[in-house]
Amino acid sequence: MIRYSILVFGILATFLIAMFGLTILPKIFIDEGVTEPVYFTPFEVTEGHRVFVREGCIYCHSKQVRPEGFGADFERGWGRASVATDYRNLLPHNLGTMRTGPDLANIGARQPGEDWHYLNLYQPRAINEESIMPPFPWLFEEVGEDARPAHEGLNLPDEYRVPGRKILPDDEARYLVAYLLSLDQQITGVD
Ligand code: HEC
Which end of the chain has fewer CB atoms within 10 angstroms, the N or the C? Predict the structure, then answer.
């Protein structure tokens, strides 16, 4: 009889310890970073997130910064440690696990230039000659040089220019860049 009660006690204790460690403890830590939610996400940002998911950016870029002291994220200048509210608006949350390229959790603050992002998406090697990031030219359109100047066209180095044509971001590229610029930790969570 005594043996049975030890067994039952053991099962209960294992269950309670696991519950404490896996649900209660993380909740206590996560709550530290919760601020007032932002209820409104602009249309461009929601659509840009959709393009980000579709194009598979997450296979090379994580969106989660480790706390100072865990790895070199802080030293790399990727921003403060991520908190729960950074992910409150858009689904899927897309934290990512691969880091073939830099983490993008705070890219909107680190790289705020809209034209820089267009150039990097159209042809990463126009920025860094040895880039291994794939180009995404299908997010852009090629028009005649005299076409209506909705945008003056990408400022490409000579080797990537198409003679007599200019390259304009299409709607999806604009949405994607709006989304990238919204990845700014000052907007998404606590400072
Ligand atoms: C095959 C891997 C790969 C994929 C897929 C990829 N990237 Fe990259 N990306 C990189 C690498 C590597 C870099 C680092 C610079 C370089 O070598 O180009 C980078 C750099 C960047 C940067 C600049 C980061 C910084 O800190 O300056 C941005 C922004 C970016 N990528 C956005 C995107 C977006 C948006 C997509 C999807 C449309 C995407 N990337 C898809 C590999 C990738």
Answer: N
